[in-house]
Write a structure and sequence with these properties.
- The protein has 133 residues and is an alpha+beta fold.
- The protein has one domain: Endonuclease, Chain A.
- Helices cover 44% and strands 22% of the residues.
- A hairpin with an 8-residue loop joins β1 and β2.
- The two termini are 13 Å apart.
């Protein structure tokens, strides 16, 4: 899969400008600390049979071996347009059998161990895929 340069640049910028909550969660997920390989701000190509347009969505955190996506929501997600874009993104990903977990920033700040436990529990229920990482 060849990712367009503009998408690569957006992903790179998002990785450089992580929110405080993303930094905390990344520290717990990186280097297979919970047994899964995760990528941050990972572009994923979504195409569907009902749409002629292929497009990329960028997942906050993504484990390809489990098709597991973790999204963090913060105050910007309270804006109607952002919320509607997130719903569309989630719909496209679920149509392709991705599992999506959403957490509020407050959950990361106040109860990171509960968040990690939920990620571990849900990941066990996701199908194991053999993909080259």
């Amino acid at each position: 899969m060849i990712i367009p340069d503009v998408i690569k640049e957006i992903s790179r910028k998002l990785r450089q400008d992580m929110t405080p909550a993303e930094k905390i969660l990344w520290e717990k997920l990186r280097a297979k600390k919970i047994g899964l390989k995760f990528y941050r701000q990972r572009p994923i190509l979504v195409s569907t049979e009902y749409s002629w347009l292929d497009r990329y969505v960028i997942a906050d955190f993504y484990s390809p071996t489990r098709k597991l996506i973790i999204e963090l929501d913060w105050s910007v997600h309270e804006i109607k347009e952002v919320y509607l874009l997130d719903l569309e993104k989630e719909k496209l990903l679920k149509h392709l059998w991705f599992t999506i977990l959403r957490f509020q920033n407050d959950e990361i700040f106040n109860n990171i161990y509960s968040v990690i436990k939920k990620i571990q529990t849900i990941s066990v229920m996701c199908p194991l895929l053999f993909v080259k990482e």
